[in-house]
TrEMBL record:
MF (Gene Ontology): glycerate kinase activity
Signal peptide boundaries: none
Ranges for domain MOFRL: 329-430
Organism phylogeny: Bacteria, Pseudomonadati, Bacteroidota, Chitinophagia, Chitinophagales
Domain MOFRL-associated: 8-252
InterPro entries, alphabetized: GK-like_C_sf, GK_N_sf, MOFRL, MOFRL_assoc_dom, MOFRL_protein
Organism of derivation: Chitinophaga barathri
Gene3D superfamilies per the UniProt record, alphabetical: Glycerate kinase, MOFRL-like N-terminal domain, MOFRL domain
Protein name: DUF4147 domain-containing protein
GO cellular component, one term: cytoplasm
């Protein structure tokens, strides 16, 4: 990989390092606020520096998402023996050992049996909670799949087929999670209902544009303003209502008719609070700092980029080609695109974006581009994303057939310019890096 491409990777890696749980968990725990009383910095001293007899507060760690285990690991280091019990579900078994917290691994981006086992286990734990107990819920992206249940009358296979169809439809994360929340008795604040009479505080690692807690991980512990009718509208918009399994169809109809309770609405969860502890903006700002140390004149576009990957590619390419400013330059963006899958290839949104952008920049040898996911996993592949420029394309096969088949992984496997990090232990959407040398 040539020097400028390695620089792009180094900028991305610095962004990922800035949103690791060890960077934010201490501050997040100090900021815990329980309903009716403020737990400021004194809270941490209380729970770490006193015996159980002096302070009988029982603390439980629950969590779901790609970063749940790493967040729990940091929480255990800080809270130590004050944790009564813990349970988190994630997509990758960590190399380290948790002392008080059980880890369940489940599937992503489509739930599996372990996702349901995790949901059942959390509900079983909740049945033993007492007034005054504190549940610290550790939420990060991926929780929608990793923590799941199946509506009565439906099967796991039917749920998996629908979620797969949603992922390929081009629906954005808000639309996708609106449907997910209304096919669950856990999502959309419903887990927080079940955790009563305990107080709940959720520490959130955001992986959605706008950092809306009701969307992140389908918001199991926060109020949800969306409705069954809106879930149905999403299915209609993406032509997914035809052939909908009878159990799922009946569940949504019953919800719209008021036979099944709605998700938890604003004002309902007075026992539950939350904190957005880290987000894509933090990662992008760290990337900018790294680029500046390399001598780049840096500009941040946004930390909420969204839309179809090929459309964003057009926007980014035009911006780079029309750039007027000092060189060398680094233009940064963060967010999460969608891909409407029509081909039979292998890839992910970052690799698709990189390939589409690279194709548009193939006659601009002074511009290089990277797009990669901060979780280290792009779609159902082993790569976080990819880097590309005209030099890569000069010796590569024609990229157009790969793009037409949504087969970006195989293209970048041939060029050797995948970005591979493995599971990073964090997840704040994607980072996009444009590096411009003087033409």
């Amino acid at each position: 990989m040539e020097g400028v491409l390695q620089q792009a990777v180094a900028i991305f890696e610095h962004a990922v390092a800035a949103v690791q749980p060890q960077q934010f968990m201490q501050k997040a725990l100090q900021g815990i606020t329980a309903p009716g009383k403020h737990r400021g910095p004194q809270f941490l001293q209380q729970v770490t520096g006193a015996s159980e007899s002096e302070h009988p507060l029982r603390i439980f760690l629950l969590g779901a998402g790609k970063a749940a285990a790493s967040m729990a690991f940091e929480a255990e280091k800080i809270l130590g023996g004050r944790i009564t019990q813990g349970l988190v579900v994630t997509n990758h078994l960590p190399a380290y050992t948790l002392q008080k917290t059980t880890v369940i691994t489940a599937a992503h981006p489509v739930p599996d049996l372990n996702s349901v086992i995790a949901g059942t286990a959390m509900l079983n734990m909740a049945s033993a909670f007492q007034p005054g107990d504190l549940v610290i819920f550790l939420l990060s992206g991926g929780a929608s799949s990793l923590l799941a249940d199946v509506p009565e009358g439906a099967t796991m296979e039917e749920l998996q087929e629908l979620f797969n169809a949603l992922l390929k439809s081009g629906a954005d994360i808000r639309e996708t999670n609106t449907v997910r929340k209304h096919l669950s008795a856990i999502k959309g604040g419903q887990l927080a209902r079940a955790l009563l009479p305990a107080n709940v505080f959720t520490i959130i690692l955001s992986d959605v544009p706008g950092d809306d807690p009701a969307v992140i991980g389908s918001g199991p512990t926060v109020p949800d303003p969306s409705t069954f009718a809106e879930a149905w509208a999403v299915l209609e918009k993406y032509h997914l209502t035809e052939g909908l399994p009878e159990g799922i169809l009946q569940h949504i109809k019953d919800g719209m008719a008021g036979i099944i309770p709605e998700t938890a609405k604003p004002g309902e969860l007075s026992h539950s609070g939350y904190l957005i502890a880290a987000s894509n903006r933090i990662a992008i700002e760290a990337a900018a700092e790294k680029a500046e140390t390399m001598g780049y004149h840096t500009r941040i576009l946004t930390s909420a980029a969204a839309g179809e990957a090929r459309e964003l590619a057009q926007t980014l390419a035009e911006l780079a080609l029309n750039y007027e400013g000092p060189y060398p330059a680094c233009i940064l963006a963060g967010g999460e695109t969608t891909v409407k899958v029509t081909g039979a290839g292998l890839g992910g949104r970052n690799q698709e974006l990189a390939l589409a952008t690279g194709l548009l920049l193939q006659h601009a040898p002074h511009i290089s581009f990277l797009s990669a996911g901060t979780d280290g996993i792009d779609g159902p592949t082993d790569a976080a994303g990819a880097v590309i420029n005209a030099s890569v394309l000069a010796t590569a096969p024609d990229p157009r057939p790969f793009l037409e088949q949504n087969d970006s992984w195989h293209f970048f496997e041939k060029t050797g310019t995948h970005v591979r990090t493995g599971h990073t232990g964090t997840n704040v959407m994607d980072v996009m890096v444009l590096l411009l040398q003087k033409p």
